[in-house]
Design goal:
Elements lengths: L2 H14 L4 H15 L4 H11 L3 H18 L5 H15 L3 H6 L4 H15 L3 H15 L9 H21 L8 H30 L1 H11 L8 H20 L5 H28 L7 H14 L2 H11 L10 H19 L6 H20 L7 H14 L13 H36 L17 H16 L3 H22 L13 H18 L1 H11 L42 H16 L4 H24 L8 H23 L11 H21 L8 H23 L3 E4 L14 E4 H21 L3 H16 L18 H10 L1 H5 L3 H16 L8 H4 L1 H29 L2 H6 L1 H16 L6 H14 L1 H10 L7 H18 L3 H4 L5 H15 L7 H15 L2 H4 L3 H15 L8 H11 L1 H17 L1 H5 L2 H14 L7 H18 L5 H20 L11 H12 L2 E2 L2 E2 L1 H16 L3 H14 L2 H4 L2 H17 L3 E5 L6 E5 H5 L9
Parallel strand pairs: 1-2
Antiparallel strand pairs: 3-4, 5-6
Helix pairs in contact: 1-2, 3-4, 4-7, 5-7, 7-9, 8-10, 9-13, 10-13, 11-12, 11-14, 12-18, 13-16, 14-16, 14-17, 15-18, 15-19, 16-19, 17-19, 17-20, 19-20, 19-21, 20-22, 21-24, 22-24, 25-26, 25-27, 26-28, 27-28, 27-29, 28-30, 29-30, 30-33, 31-33, 33-35, 33-37, 37-40, 40-43, 43-47, 45-47, 45-49, ...
């Protein structure tokens, strides 16, 4: 068999995928071997000349493409010309040649791309030849009515798109400067290309339609009257209806013509999109271009298509073409508009000439979305006119076309989402800066023709588009809400100046009206009483009313105590509900509402507060008459809407709490505070009788009201809006605006009421969300306050009070275990923080009120007694060796509680931290924990082992991160040393699991920041990371680090990155000590070198290690370290060269960030203040590397050394210069491996030639 027959047979068998995997692998390797032959491109040309087999053609073109990319500079001039001319003939063949060898145009498009890739290397020289071929593609016949004509056009447009795509594509084959030069040359021909595209498009659409639409755009000021607008719209609809419904003698023939026409339009628009992405867009016929884009925008509008389909149902018509093909035209048109508005490199003077056309295109496309617009009447009259004029229409074959209608409706829904999302994307920049700097003087006229554009009417259309068209499509609606946020942000920045805030700025009345209308519409959408039908559809994931607190209390469940430590997540976040459509909708809506409130907070908040007051009355009445309420269907629905609106108001006010301080008076806040306390008490009482409602939906509603009430109270507490004083000041100016000042008695009554509600819900409610939120309210009372803030009154600490009972819950293990894990965490944090805070620490309080100071000092002493005598014993009783041996579960729980108690110190000051440390030290619990930890087995008790590490991490976070606190933990350094020794022993028989390594990394990173404590530990920590953590990442061995690191980067790449980051940080923290010792340096560099072994396929790890090394050199001049230069630099350099020359390593692709990073560091390690050290580079890197990859290394090394010596050290110190020379070497090595494979006769049976024989087959200049 011939080589061609073997190739064809192999490709057919390979793509059939019916052979065994071994056989397919053999075929693949044989095809790769054939492709890698130096002369394979000659065979490829031969195959293309005689075959039209798609697989053979694509394979052959792939060979030629690889030759151009990898071996082009090593071909002779005649060989280059042979390839170039063949591709030109093959891609741009005439009709006769094409009819003799029918190749699908997809193959020809690839040929055009490859031919263009040659042209763009030397476009100035090949300019005439390239654009001569492009011009040929744009020569169209006089007739464009037959299928053959449209097919020919389609091929021409496809080839044009392929050529333009390749020409303006920036890749690693050409430099940035060359790319810019090519774009500049291309732009010179853009007017000619566009003129040809516009001409053929206008011929396909028809002159009457073109003239009608052009008349709309002639007036630059946007003035448009009804008659021409409606006439042009009528013609567009007629064209659309013809495509959809008109039939012929042969329905398949008509369908083929319509589809070809739409494909032509799609290709034209894709070409235009490419041109607009790089063109200067200055020398264009804007009226002509935007007329076409407007036509296509309307042709493919889902609303237009939907209206035409609706108006055709009375005649039982069915589309004869897929409606998605028409919608695609509209989306391509939007893409063209997006290319223009998103260009950042266009001059303002140029953009000003384009924007009025873009605005009108979008304004008119949104105008027809209004139900008041007579689009349906127009469509009905057009369909009737077509029927009456004798046009053959495509009717449904079935009398009942319900299935077809359902399919079309489903398609329209899918199309609408994508189409309107594209609309939102193009509107985003238009509603901000563009809308302001492009308007002529008369563009803000609100009166006059509906069809005339003005900026105010445009925003009104966007408003309608938002709440009528986009809102049913939740993803698009959320996106357009972000658009309005961008608009408001721009208004704030545009009208505010250095001397005035946004609220005091003079915002034009029309903008104020837009914002006011936006607020009203937004509030209507979030209230159930206004939008129940829509909101009920979103609310599909509403949580169940009774979520009992029967969590798993087994040993493993206590992992929840420390599982979030590494992510630094507050325990309150663990209560977050699963994200749903409704939650996303409310979050986006309330974020926008908060943004609106920047402009007029009083109006917005009074509007929400009025709704809150209205619904609260209904809620209060329900709570007082719960048992006597008789619920009928209409009553239930009304009550449901009222309760949901009350919860919405509470959530809205929580989002608006940042603006409370902007209110001119505090009257509303005082009323709100009283209402919230009253409402919470009523809600708690109602929750006790929830089952009497008997309707789960209403039970859920009540729960949401109480949760929202608690959340708003927490916002008020944490926002600092409530102030406490011994006596309310009489001087109004002393009270900050928007704040409330309470007397001590009022504060005590307020906190007592909240504590009673929290206590009741925590201890009695069966609903987990109510318990958790009540505990968070308790936490807010304690943590969010500053003395003399909202701490509970002193009498609450006496026996029998609710606060004393909550403290008792934390001091009695049996009661504490009865709560869910979340509650245990919150309660332990809150109670510990309360007992640690010194309430008498207020500045100058002793001078102002000595009696108050004495009372607070006595209270603080009493709390300290509770801490020492009641809370600490639960730790000492559970955290000892006896309990560890007899009751592991009790020990585990005690350790988790202590970890959480430590976490309570995070927001507290030094005094509280010292008090906690003294208490822990005096009771001996710290020493007991270390003894217990030494007795813990890593292999069989991994969870307990992790729990210990979590405690150490928390302890280090609190006490080990600052010099000032180092003195508080004198035994910490010794204990960490013991920890490392325990790990060394344990890991000899058991592998560290990821959570253990993760906790250890956090602990070591925190320890490293304490430079005083870390100094003596650094060598041991470094050895531990290198010999223990790195090895344990993938269960390997230290003798095969490359394989270990490779496996680790595949199994857990993020953890692998963290380990190496900690390794580099450890070495950098104690650089002077570690870098001066050969053993320490080896422990550091061995794992780093293994990253560059060629086995790691994660480019992030490669790049990160290079960045770490570069940073190390920047900080400490590491590359000039004598030990590194003499013992390690050569090894690293050879590994880097190996990676750069490796053709199969997926981590280092040509032109990738990884390749750039490796070249940069390879250059950096040989750079000195005097320049690049060429001799050292050749001697220590190049020659050893070539010895491994080439047998005839002397020729390469000598030639490259000659070139290097021609450049001065200062010249080679420039990275770009070094990169260009190195690329020559890399190309040569990639093309000339140690063993070359050449096909001899039968495909797949190869003979092996040595390098000298292979290279002698054709001339090679390695320095080309």
């Amino acid at each position: 068999m011939t080589a061609f027959a073997n190739i064809q047979s192999a490709l057919a068998e390979f793509f059939a995928q019916t052979s065994s995997q071994e056989r397919l692998a053999q075929l693949q390797q044989s095809l790769i071997s054939f492709e890698q032959q130096p002369s394979s491109w000659m065979s490829a040309i031969e195959f293309l000349s005689i075959s039209s087999d798609q697989y053979v053609c694509m394979f052959s073109l792939g060979i030629i493409e690889s030759t151009i990319k990898q071996r082009w500079n090593h071909l002779t001039s005649s060989e280059k010309q042979q390839i170039f001319r063949f591709l030109e003939r093959y891609a741009f063949s005439d009709q006769d040649w094409r009819s003799n060898i029918p190749i699908i145009y997809g193959v020809r498009c690839k040929a055009v791309k490859i031919w263009t890739s040659i042209c763009k290397r030397s476009l100035p020289e090949l300019h005439d030849q390239f654009f001569s071929r492009i011009t040929t593609l744009l020569s169209f016949p006089d007739s464009l009515t037959t299928e053959s004509d449209l097919q020919s056009n389609l091929i021409s447009f496809s080839l044009l798109k392929a050529a333009c795509e390749e020409l303006i594509c920036q890749d690693s084959e050409i430099s940035r400067a060359k790319y810019l030069e090519n774009v500049s040359i291309f732009n010179c021909s853009v007017p000619q290309i566009l003129s040809a595209l516009f001409e053929v498009t206008e011929r396909l659409l028809g002159q009457e339609l073109i003239d009608s639409v052009n008349s709309l755009f002639i007036q630059f000021n946007g003035s448009t009257v009804e008659s021409p607008f409606m006439n042009s719209l009528r013609l567009i609809l007629y064209f659309d209806a013809n495509l959809l419904f008109s039939s012929s003698n042969s329905k398949s023939e008509k369908k083929g013509l319509s589809n070809l026409l739409l494909q032509n339009f799609a290709n034209i628009l894709e070409c235009l999109t490419l041109i607009l992405s790089v063109s200067t867009i200055g020398d264009m016929n804007n009226c002509r271009m935007y007329s076409l884009l407007y036509i296509f925008l309307m042709l493919g509008s889902p609303h237009t298509l939907s209206t035409l389909l609706s108006s055709s149902r009375s005649r039982n018509l069915s589309p004869c073409i897929p409606i998605e093909s028409l919608a695609e035209i509209g989306m391509h048109s939007i893409s063209c508009l997006t290319e223009v508005v998103e260009r950042k490199d266009i001059q303002r003077s140029v953009m000003i000439h384009h924007l009025p056309f873009i605005f009108r295109c979008l304004y008119w496309s949104m105008l027809i979305l209004d139900p008041q617009f007579p689009l349906y009447d127009l469509s009905t009259s057009i369909v009737g006119l077509m029927a009456e004029s004798g046009v053959a229409l495509s009717t449904s074959q079935s009398a009942n076309n319900l299935s077809g209608l359902a399919s079309v409706s489903q398609t329209l829904e899918s199309i609408s989402e994508e189409y309107y999302q594209k609309m939102v994307d193009v509107l985003r920049p238009l509603v901000t800066v563009f809308l302001l700097f492009t308007r002529p003087a008369n563009m803000d006229e609100q009166h006059g023709s509906l069809y005339s554009f003005s900026s105010t009417k445009f925003l009104q259309r966007v408003h309608f588009f938002t709440f009528n068209t986009c809102r049913p499509i939740i993803t698009v609606y959320l996106s357009i809400l972000d658009l309005w946020n961008a608009y408001l942000d721009f208004i704030k920045s545009y009208y505010a100046n250095n001397n005035s805030s946004v609220r005091n700025a003079q915002i034009p009345p029309q903008n104020q009206q837009i914002i006011s209308d936006l607020c009203a519409s937004l509030l209507n959408t979030i209230y159930f009483s206004e939008s129940a039908e829509y909101l009920d559809l979103l609310d599909s994931e509403y949580a169940s009313g009774y979520t009992n607190c029967d969590d798993d209390h087994s040993t493993n469940s206590y992992l929840a105590f420390f599982d979030d430590l590494l992510q630094h997540v507050d325990c309150s976040d663990m209560m977050a509900e699963k994200e749903s459509e409704y939650r996303g909708f409310m979050q986006s809506s309330l974020t926008l509402l908060s943004n609106i409130a920047h402009f007029n907070p009083t109006v917005v908040m009074h509007s929400v507060a009025a709704k809150f007051q209205e619904e609260m009355k209904i809620f209060t009445e329900l709570c007082s008459t719960l048992e006597r309420t008789k619920l009928e269907e209409h009553t239930t629905r009304k009550l449901h809407y009222s309760l949901r609106d009350l919860a919405t108001c509470l959530n809205s006010l929580a989002y608006l709490s940042d603006h409370f301080a902007s209110l001119s008076d505090s009257a509303m806040l005082k009323w709100l505070l009283q209402a919230l306390v009253f409402n919470l008490n009523a809600g708690v009482t109602c929750c006790d009788r929830l089952k009497s409602l008997q309707i789960e939906t209403l039970q859920q509603d009540v729960i949401q009201v109480v949760v929202g009430n608690i959340s708003l109270l927490r916002c008020l507490l944490s926002g600092g809006l409530l102030m406490v004083s011994d006596a309310v000041t009489q001087n109004v100016t002393d009270i900050p605006q928007g704040h409330i000042v309470l007397s001590i008695d009022d504060k005590d009554a307020f906190t007592t009421s909240l504590l009673q509600c929290s206590h009741h819900l925590i201890l009695t409610s069966p609903v987990s969300s109510l318990q958790t939120n009540a505990a968070l309210l308790f936490q807010s009372i304690v943590i969010s306050s500053a003395p003399p803030g909202f701490f509970p009154p002193a009498n609450q600490l006496s026996e029998g009070s609710v606060l004393a009972d909550l403290i008792t819950c934390c001091c009695e293990p049996i009661r504490l275990k009865s709560f869910s894990i979340h509650l245990q965490r919150i309660l332990m944090r809150t109670v510990t923080a309360y007992l640690l805070i010194d309430e008498s620490a207020t500045i100058n309080l002793a001078k102002v009120n000595p009696q108050r100071t004495e009372e607070l000092q006595a209270l603080t002493a009493k709390k300290t007694g509770v801490l020492v005598n009641r809370l600490m014993p639960i730790f000492t009783q559970t955290l000892n060796v006896d309990i560890l041996n007899s009751n592991r579960d009790a020990y585990f729980a005690g350790l988790c509680w202590l970890t959480e108690a430590l976490a309570s110190l995070i927001p507290l000051g030094t005094k509280s931290r010292r008090l906690m440390y003294d208490a822990l030290t005096e009771c001996g619990v710290l020493n007991a924990i270390w003894k217990c930890f030494e007795a813990t087995s890593l292999s069989s008790e991994v969870y307990l082992f992790i729990a210990h590490l979590s405690f150490f991490v928390q302890f280090a976070d609190i006490y080990g991160n600052q010099r000032a606190t180092a003195s508080m933990i004198p035994g910490f350094v010794t204990n960490v040393m013991q920890l490392l020794q325990v790990l060394d022993r344990n890991t000899a028989t058991a592998r560290l699991v990821s959570p253990v390594i993760s906790h250890l990394l956090h602990l070591l990173d925190r320890l490293g920041q304490n430079r005083v404590a870390f100094h003596s530990l650094a060598p041991d920590v470094l050895r531990f990371i290198s010999n223990c953590l790195v090895v344990n990442l993938a269960g390997g061995s230290i003798s095969d680090l490359p394989t270990t690191v490779s496996n680790a980067s595949k199994s857990d790449p993020d953890l692998c990155l963290r380990v190496f980051k900690t390794l580099f940080n450890t070495f950098s923290y104690e650089y002077t000590q570690l870098a001066s010792n050969e053993e320490h340096l080896a422990a550091f560099l061995r794992p780093v070198l293994s990253v560059f072994s060629g086995k790691v396929f994660d480019p992030r790890l490669l790049i990160s290690c290079i960045e770490f090394l570069t940073d190390l050199n920047t900080r400490h001049r590491f590359f000039t370290l004598p030990i590194f230069m003499t013992q390690w630099r050569s090894q690293f350099a050879q590994q880097w060269l190996e990676l750069l020359s490796d053709r199969v390593n997926v981590a280092v692709q040509r032109g990738s960030d990884a390749e750039s990073a490796i070249i940069g560091i390879l250059h950096g390690v040989y750079c000195t203040p005097d320049g690049f050290n060429s001799k050292e580079f050749v001697a220590s890197a190049l020659e050893p590397f070539l010895a491994r990859v080439l047998e005839k290394k002397e020729q390469f090394a000598a030639q490259l050394m000659t070139v290097l010596m021609e450049k001065s050290p200062k010249e080679l110190a420039v990275l770009d210069e070094f990169t260009s020379l190195l690329s020559v070497l890399l190309v040569s090595v990639r093309q000339n491996p140690r063993v070359s494979v050449a096909v001899n006769g039968k495909f797949g049976q190869c003979e092996f030639l040595d390098y000298e024989q292979s290279i002698s087959k054709r001339p090679v200049n390695v320095l080309l």
